[in-house]
Amino acid sequence: MGDLMVFSVFFILIAIGQKEHAALFNASRAQLDMWVGVFNTFLLLTGSWFVAIGVARCRAGLSAGGARNFTLGILCGVGFVANKAVEWGGKISDGLSPATNDFYMFFFVFTGIHLLHVLVGLVVLFVVRSASCRPTIGVRELRTIESGAVFWHLVDLLWVVLFALLYLL
Amino acid sequence: MSEAKADPLFRKSIVFCAWSGLAAIVLFIIGGVFLGGMLPPLLHANDSPAEFVRKVSEHLFEIRVGSVFLMLSFALFGPFGAGIAALTRRAETSPAFSYVQLVFTACGTMVALLVAFTWALMVFRPDEYDPTLVQMFADFAYFLAVFSVPCFGGWCVVIALPILLAEEGKAPFPRWVAYVNLWAVLLFAPGQMVLFFKDGPFSWHGIVALWIPFVAFFLWILIMCAVMLKAVKPGAQVRPA
């Protein structure tokens, strides 16, 4: 919840930038490949779906199914990171950097901070997965699994808004 | 741990440590907010050196008095951190995380004290220093304060870990305290961007790199002080160790 507040500040900053430099923001936005963003959104949403199924399996006491779904969730997350790296690499080799203009400053910094969250989220998912592999899933394991899953959903939620503001608007 | 109940000195010590943290917040507000011009930032990363000298000279006396308050405030980080370490230690059988916390406490206190030193030097003789030196002192102070993410962030992580890793019922603090600490790390993190920007929200006078880490840091102290006071409140159930 705390992170939602901080990202709200980020979202407002983008909105102010959009208002003040509408032409620049629109021109820069047109240079982004929307489909890369769509693909990343798809990856994260699918990952969240797997994680949600995994949590449901663990609640029902089916630990094997849980771990498999968390693995798939982790793979989606890794795909997101790889896709982001390719996108950033492409932008930088086109000569676009955070110093180019205000739009790219926001683009790189905010997607960078979000990427940091994805990486933390991946570590969390590994912890969740190992908790789901224990022979018996008690209250303690279930708490770890559910808290971790909530964090992953948060990372997903933040991306959906960020995607809309940076790529679509 | 039954001996904690029977140890009034320990309770008083922790109360002292918690109040040190609270005093640090008050002294920072006096020294950094009202007098010192540190927050909201009087200076801007993209000002010219001459502009730095002009602004500093205009507020020379306030900033000098403010620096004394900053010094007092930051020195109190020591007892504040030691109190958290002592409470963590109480829950450990063989201490490890409490020692790591002390290392980070010492390191964080030193870095923070250097902020006050630098801030004071900036207003020592701004007319005799080359203007770019005045500019550098301001840069230096803000870099010490917000670029030092791994130092203060690491401190939060080693407060969170013993809580999350503890066996059921043996954690030094409630679980939500661990999450607050991990969240604080994410809030401090944008401070590292001050190296790459001299203007806008990510420079050392900007909202993301200055305001968010600073406000988060002092809120973190406030929360940890409240948690410490609660942990030793008479009649509060003492956590078994």
Describe this structure in words.
The complex is a heterodimer of chains A (169) and B (241). In chain A, helix 1 runs antiparallel to helix 5 (102-132) and helix 3 runs antiparallel to helix 6. Chain A has 169 residues and is mainly α. Chain A has helices at residues 2-20, 22-31, 34-59, 63-93, 102-132, 139-168. The longest helix of chain A has 31 residues, at 63-93. The mean pLDDT of chain B is 92. Chain B has helices spanning 2-5, 8-35, 49-58, 60-75, 77-91, 97-122, 131-146, 149-165, 175-188, 207-231. In chain B, helix 2 (8-35) runs antiparallel to helix 5, helix 3 crosses helix 7 (131-146) and helix 5 crosses helix 10 (207-231). Chain A binds chain B through residues 2-3, 6, 9-10, 13, 98, 102, 105, 109, 113, 116-117, 120, 140, and chain B through 168, 180, 183, 186-187, 189-190, 193, 196-197, 200-202, 207-208, 212. Chain B: The chain crosses the membrane at residues 21-43, 63-87, 99-120, 140-164, 176-197, 203-229.
Overall pLDDT of chain A: 88
Q: Secondary-structure element order of chain A, as H and E?
A: HHHHHH
Q: Sheet bearing the most strands of chain A, described?
A: none
Total number of strands of chain A: 0
Strand content of chain B is under 5%
Number of strands of chain B: 0
Question: Ranges of chain B with pLDDT <50 over ≥5 residues?
Answer: none
What is the fourth-level CATH superfamily of chain A? Cytochrome c oxidase, subunit III, four-helix bundle
Which geometry of chain B do the CA atoms define? Answer: elongated
What's the helix count of chain B?
Answer: 10
Kindly provide the radius of gyration of chain B, computed on alpha-carbon positions and rounded to a whole number of angstroms. 19 Å
**Annotated CATH architecture of chain A:** Up-down Bundle
- Main β-sheet of chain B, in a few words? none
- Structurally, how many domains make up the residues of chain A? 1
Q: Nearest-angstrom radius of gyration of chain A?
A: 18 Å
CATH topology value of chain A:
Four Helix Bundle (Hemerythrin (Met), subunit A)
